[in-house]
Hints:
The complex is a heterodimer of chains A (243) and B (377). Chain A has 243 residues and is α/β, with parallel strands linked by helices. Helix content of chain A is 38%, strand content 26%. In chain A, strands 6-7-8-3-9-10 form a 6-stranded mixed beta sheet. A 4-stranded antiparallel beta sheet of chain A has the order 2-1-4-5, covered by helices on one side. The longest helix of chain A is centred in the C-terminal third of the chain and has 17 residues. In chain A, 47% of the residues are buried. The radius of gyration of chain B is 28 Å and the shape is elongated. In chain B, 55% of the residues lie in helices and 20% in strands. Chain B: Keywords: ATP-binding, Cell membrane, Hydrolase, Membrane, Nucleotide-binding, Transmembrane, Transmembrane helix.
Amino acid sequence: MALVELRGVCKSFRKGDETITPLDHIDLDIDAGEFVSLMGPSGTGKSTLLNLVSGIDRPDAGTITVAGTEVTKLSRSKLADWRAANLGYIFQTHNLIPVLTAYENVELPTLLLKLTSTERRQRVELALEAVGLSDRADHYPRQLSGGQEQRVGIARAIVAHPQVVVADEPTGSLDTETSEQVQTLLQRLNKELDITMLMVTHDSDVAAIASRQLVLDRGKFLEQSGTTPTRKAEGDEMIKQFG
Amino acid sequence: MTTYVLKTLWRHRTRTLLTVTGAAVAMFVFCFVGSVQEGLHRLTTGADADRSLIVFQESRFCPTSSRLPEDYSRKIKEVAGVREVMPIQVWTNNCRASLDIVVFQGADPEQIRRTRPLTLTEGDWQTFSSQRDAAIVGRNVAQRRGLKKGDQFSIGEISVNVTGIFESSVPSEENLIYTSLAFLQYTRGLDAAGLVTQHEVRLTDDADPDRVASEIDAVLRSGPVATRTRRKGAFQASTLSDLVDLIGFAHWLGYACVGLVLSLVATTTVMSVQDRIKEYAVLQTIGVRPLRAMRLVLAESTILCVAGGISGTLLALAALEIGGFAIGAEGATISFQPSLALAVTGTLVSVFVGLAAGIAPAVQAASVPIVNALRQA
Lengths: 243, 377
């Protein structure tokens, strides 16, 4: 059984008189330890899909099951608890809490779990070490570079030992060099810590670090295991275009 | 999470400081108004107010216009239910409402000592009894006028030698200056030999105050001056009737202060939440429950309000303690005193207002549409 299962997921938005359907009966399976990247033109529903898997948005139809929990059935409070224990979210713009130090930002998710202060401290220190920022623990976000901020964001996403980490354009706001550092870090976390990852990106080079690349267009996946060869060819073409 | 709340408040320290200051000022006024109302309540209720009667000249209000024969006390003593009568000559520097009223009461020193709950903090009773122009001064008057034992104090036609300072369990007493009866009667200009302003009647335990009051007036009807006798509390409320109305109205000022704090803290908290709506979306994305997000906002508003409220309350209590304020009219005074009840009320009001002020922004933070908020720049 896949760690993440999407079955018949639909999501529509009203924009004036028009109804936009970025996700139209989507099916997707992601296995434990897999690193999946999701590409596609703007407005095709990549981030929407990520938000649905994260449980911060709800589908109009279909089911989403993560690690055996059907997240589409959970209440808002239960979803929050589920996210705290099972999901790490890496934002494009870091979204660190500006009044908290790097250490305190990383510590935040652990405060929501039943951990002793020693366990909490160990986890935070390990997470900061994993992203190479142990020496920046006492720094505030304003004292960090963009790449360092993103690495703190990544440490925050993995500190609770989640089942899945989702990343929304994690390198979107970084320069090339910093972007490469973050890519290497994500790859390392996936391989060394066996963290399942679902990443949205516009950049085919970034997408290439994933073990599986998906392209979303007009509400459907163009390239996915089990899709028709024609659709796969369209997907390959689109990946090339992005490149 | 407490760190987050405190650091958030510190991040906007100017806004926080202004809000706390505003809340402190409003709670200062609230406590001040509360102390005036407490003072009035103390003056018009309690055992002394109910179990003592004041015999005053009929249809007269200002102490200078009530002139009763001193020997009325003999006739009053004969009325059943009367335990003791104390003839008192009153002199005040101002019959109208004033914040710096000086009231002299002249009576037999031995009776003053026996009937009034006074404790001399400076001086002794012996000197007070033996010197003709001796005066013992209430703590509040001494504080306001900077008087101490050995000072000569003159006001109007009266000049006394301060032989003692006293404290009292009845706060309004601390706004009085006591002299001997004869001294006030023979003060130049008062022309009150053989006359007194009022007779204060203490009742036996089983006496009905209203019946005794009627009987006293009936007995004295045949005398040269008609009287009106009332319970001490009712007499003082009537004497201060204009102020009572004003103080009654002032409680709206107290409510207005509470409203002011509420709107001030609510505005600050709403602004703070709206500025950080994305932050609340991030917190909920990483697993903070909506209820917990609400609690964070409520903690923020309550800290603001309690910090301001407690500061304002403490400042008010300190000002009341140090200032020895009182307002008076026609010889009666209302003392503004700090009290534990006032401190507790101020603190509780701050907590409740803080929670109330946070409700709307807390709901906003908890119900934030996460996806939309995350898209905000």
